[in-house]
């Protein structure tokens, strides 16, 4: 009897576990992300995908990081395996809710405040947020033809239901961060926002990213060549961010 | 079209018409034997009558029971004694078709399973193939039981539909056949000559189609061609017997492994069902599987004992090392006044009165009881302890039909006889042993001394001799 | 054995002629309706007028019915052996009426037969003794002499004969071999299709369904594949149609608590949540049989539920049994139990039974009771009229 949990959907006392995969994030936003996460989640599980800097050390320095697995060699080209591994790791902690976070993602204040209310209910099993791609700095986000992810919803917060059937599509790139199976369960589209600082970097860094993409995917199989091209836009359309308190 | 080819066409047309109308006899002077493997009663009750109906006038059927519980008596009851069907009941330890093949007397034979349904014209077309090409010794029709090119999977609602289809096919493809590398199916036509050369089926392969394939490959080894008819189709009735599946049923893979090893096939190809070995494998000699009964380790010997008088001492003295013996004692009460002596259950005492009756009994005794080996013993001789054992060995291991054991004083004479090639030799009956089932020759009485019997062996027999202590040597006519 | 045919129309339109030729122990076959002398001779079937079927001794007959509108007749004939040939609703018929009375006919029959695989699966979940009159094997599986003709039989024709022979034997034997044989044939066929069509969710689902009916845990694997394919193709409305099925498989072949969890995952409406709670309650109090039966019912496998519940004696079990009986059109049994447990009965059900037995006045009375004070009787009385009209049309077609 004790191997199963009752009730299946708790309306109170849910634990929130963050899950991350990181690679050479030491000099970037990782520390800040972990600090902020530590304020509103209960646990953090991380897979270090073959970092060559002191990323692993950094992770270990945070008390809420309860599981850290370091891989000798990166699984970058086998994204499906990496996602599956991170999922299995997270699930092994018998979590209630899981929040999938990247090393450069920040939840706005309102989202952090709402978090508990979002998960302490039994009506829906996942939540999507609006993700904003900040550009060139942390004050503006980009909005144009190729950069409009904030007009859609990205699922990052899910209830873990043991005995559900979870799977990731077996692809090498662009594998969703959470099992596709969640699509059939009821979910909630929140108007809460997440700030993505991956592109909030210097023009030189943008250029480096562009070169990397082209190297990996010269024919545009995994992404659009036009979008890669647009990374180099001299005058991207930017919108000022207004933090709502 | 030239005048000649037009004429040929006309002749072919006429011939084809006669054949399809069933007006032509089979191209074999001695008819045909059909061996049917009986395992499904529902099919057998239909298969046999169809064979009798559609195989022409001169057919004989040998139906063999493939399982101990096949209701053979019930099936046999459906046929009148005039109908040319004989039934061989199931025998444990035997592979029944091999047993049946030994019974074949006609130049051609067919082996098929009782699930095969035939229709008019099926046989004639198959039989012509070895006449089209004398090196063809095995012919198969298309059916769902052939693997590979011969496989044809069809369903017909009624026999009538089947007959129509085959009739059409015969009309269209009559005379067409092609050489193939292997056959595996439930219907095969072959020559008696072939089975006498390569023997029977290797039952250790377990799966029937593997046994057939192996046999066909052995046929190719001696230069025989295998043919697949384009025109003839026979309808195999599949079985639902493997359903419902019992839990924990294991699939038979042993047969495959044996087959693969035997023919030097690369392992791993079993999954594709690949059966044809590389051509080099055909050069490795394969053992002949004898037809007829599997020779037991210790065959039954019928020892016919004749005597002037039967002395208890003789009996006591004859403690032969070989045990599997049925003793037949022939006593003439006119000369032998000894009281009755006890014999064991399967031994026989034939009591007669007078020399003529005695001689007759002796000549007929061997025909009364079936056994692998028959020998004669006279109470006037003291045989050494291992006499019968040595004789049995000589017969089972050699290929002689008849063995004479020569005592030392006879040996020289014997060798002399054989060297001269004088085949009107007579042999002392008390030193003769021969294979069951053959007629050894004529028994006569050496008039000079009473009750000393001689055998005049049949000229066609292969005679070997053994000395008192030496190995057997063989002589051939 | 003698056979009586109650068809959906004329002899010309009768679609089961070959099955009639293959009937086992075929002493006599009577067709209700008109046939010319030639037709009778050629088919070895005797024509019988509808009015005359009552003069036949039903103890000696097996009835083959292929229209649900013969049901009243079948009931009043009090036939011992009834084979229902179930069909999809023809275009000209009212679907609701047809499905209801086909359900009732199927429930009444000793053997249900159908050429529709969808109906076959549906019936296999509702009752024992269902045969599918179709198959995918390319070869012949049996032979038989009927009269002077030699027939080769398809796999399902072999089973058709076995199923009918089995009818006359001791019916207390559970699930005959031939049922299992057919389920295995179907399962094998779909498993081979899955190998040929690895991205097709439907064949995987069907493979899972047949494996489930066979109690084979391999069903899980195929259902998982089907579910994943549905999600990949974005047919996202598959939680109830695909995922819930796992719970039924789990009941049969795995762990009961896992099964309840799997059901609970799919429970969102108030009613479903109550169900989930009830299941959890029974689980905790050790009433495992009720849990198993309910999970089967929630997965539309009422036959499995009935098997469990009919051997239980508590009133709770009996109440559940009533629900199942109603679902699978075993309405007489439902009424009996209702009477026993509650003293009162469902008016619609009672009314329908009366109607089928030709007791019009009682039927109207029951329907009026069921309708209650807000005068909801009209749809029920309208149904009565529709049924009577459908029966009249049938008789006209048969006599034509």
Annotate the secondary structure layout:
The complex is a heterotrimer of chains A (245), B (477) and C (400).
Chain A: E1 16-22, H1 30-40, E2 43-48, H2 55-60, E3 65-70, H3 79-91, E4 97-100, E5 105-107, H4 109-119, E6 126-133, E7 140-142, E8 154-159, E9 187-196, H5 203-216, H6 225-230, E10 238-240
Parallel strand pairs in A: 1-2, 1-4, 2-3, 6-9
Antiparallel strand pairs in A: 4-8, 5-9, 6-8, 7-10
Chain B: H1 3-20, E1 32-38, H2 41-54, E2 59-65, H3 72-76, E3 85-88, H4 96-101, E4 108-113, E5 116-117, H5 122-132, E6 136-142, H6 159-173, E7 177-180, E8 187-191, H7 192-198, H8 208-221, E9 225-233, E10 235-236, H9 254-262, E11 301-306, H10 312-317, E12 325-332, E13 348-352, H11 355-368, E14 373-378, H12 387-397, E15 402-405, H13 408-420, E16 427-428, E17 432-435, E18 441-445, E19 453-457, E20 463-466, E21 472-475
Chain C: E1 2-6, H1 17-21, E2 28-32, H2 37-43, E3 46-48, E4 61-65, H3 71-77, E5 81-86, H4 95-108, E6 111-114, H5 117-126, E7 130-132, E8 142-146, E9 149-153, H6 155-167, H7 177-196, H8 201-213, H9 219-232, H10 239-243, H11 245-253, H12 256-265, H13 270-284, H14 288-298, H15 302-309, H16 315-327, H17 331-342, H18 347-356, H19 360-371, H20 377-399
Helix pairs in contact in C: 6-7, 7-8, 8-9, 11-12, 12-13, 12-14, 13-14, 14-15, 15-16, 16-17, 18-19, 19-20
Give me some keywords for this one.
heterotrimer, B: 477 residues, Spore Coat Polysaccharide Biosynthesis Protein SpsA, Chain A, 2 domains, eight-stranded mixed sheet, C: 400 residues, alpha/beta, Rossmann fold, 3 domains, seven-stranded parallel sheet, two-stranded antiparallel ribbon, 20 helices, 9 strands
What can you see in these coordinates?
The complex is a heterotrimer of chains A (245), B (477) and C (400). Helices cover 25% and strands 23% of the residues of chain A. By secondary structure, chain A is α/β, with parallel strands linked by helices. Chain A has a single domain (16-200), classed as Spore Coat Polysaccharide Biosynthesis Protein SpsA, Chain A, CATH 3.90.550.10. Chain A has an 8-stranded mixed beta sheet with strand order 3-2-1-4-8-6-9-5, sandwiched between helices. The longest helix of chain A has 14 residues, at 203-216. The radius of gyration of chain A is 18 Å and the shape is globular. Chain B is an alpha/beta fold. Chain B folds into 2 domains: 3-236, Spore Coat Polysaccharide Biosynthesis Protein SpsA, Chain A (Alpha-Beta Complex), CATH 3.90.550.10; 301-475, Spore Coat Polysaccharide Biosynthesis Protein SpsA, Chain A. Chain C is an alpha/beta fold and 400 residues long. Chain C folds into 3 domains: 2-174, 3-Layer(aba) Sandwich (Rossmann fold); 180-353; 354-398, no CATH class. Chain C has 20 helices and 9 strands. Chain C has helices at residues 17-21, 37-43, 71-77, 95-108, 117-126, 155-167, 177-196, 201-213, 219-232, 239-243, 245-253, 256-265, 270-284, 288-298, 302-309, 315-327, 331-342, 347-356, 360-371, 377-399; strands at residues 2-6, 28-32, 46-48, 61-65, 81-86, 111-114, 130-132, 142-146, 149-153. A 7-stranded parallel beta sheet of chain C has the order 3-2-1-4-5-6-7, with helices on both faces. Chain C has a two-stranded antiparallel ribbon with strand order 8-9. The model of chain C has no long low-confidence stretch (mean pLDDT 93). Chains in contact: A-C, B-C. Chain B binds chain C through residues 42-43, 46, 117, 144, 153-160, 162, 235-240, 243-245, and chain C through 18, 137-145, 149-152, 154-155, 158-159, 177, 180-181, 184-185.
